[in-house]
Amino acid sequence: MSLFTLLIKKKKATDMVPKACEIGIAITTYNRKEMVCALVERIRKITKENYFLVVCDDGSTDGTTEALKRLGVTVIGGSNKGIAWNKNRGLFFFSNICRADSIILMDDDVFPNMFGWAQEWAYGSHRVGHVNYVPHFYDRSSPRRPMTAMNLGVGHMIGEACC
């Protein structure tokens, strides 16, 4: 059964989903209930841009889905199929269900720490097509500090353009 079919069958899950948004934030997770719930709360606290958030759950068995639904988060997922499949759930959602101008894919262990982070990520994504999170320890060793949407770094550890 496709993701689209699952979302349509569960009308309740799509009732609150907008048809479009400026920034679509898709968080991937698997069995990290506390971590992903803390991330959702953090995003809600420091993100002022027009965004819609969805969590892509890869078949968690630790109560992740239930905890997120209690927080009012839209959760999509199914059986465990790995990180690439789970990221594709988010891409599909923001390409076909809720059309996003910019899509931010992030793992549950990324923790934004400043207001405006989503705008910076969206801008970097538009500039180069793809943005990855850079851990704080990597930025210290980069010859192009600080890494931002205007001062991109290319990381051998991550393999993609970073900001």
Automatic annotation (TrEMBL):
Domain of life: Bacteria
One Pfam family here: Glycos_transf_2
Position of the signal peptide: none
KW Cell cycle (keyword) present: no
Annotated keywords: Glycosyltransferase, Transferase
InterPro entries linked: Glyco_trans_2-like (IPR001173), Nucleotide-diphossugar_trans (IPR029044)
GO molecular function annotation: glycosyltransferase activity
Domain Glycosyltransferase 2-like: 25-113
Family, similarity comment: Belongs to the glycosyltransferase 2 family.
Protein name as it appears in the record: Glycosyltransferase 2-like domain-containing protein
Organism encoding this protein: Acetobacter aceti
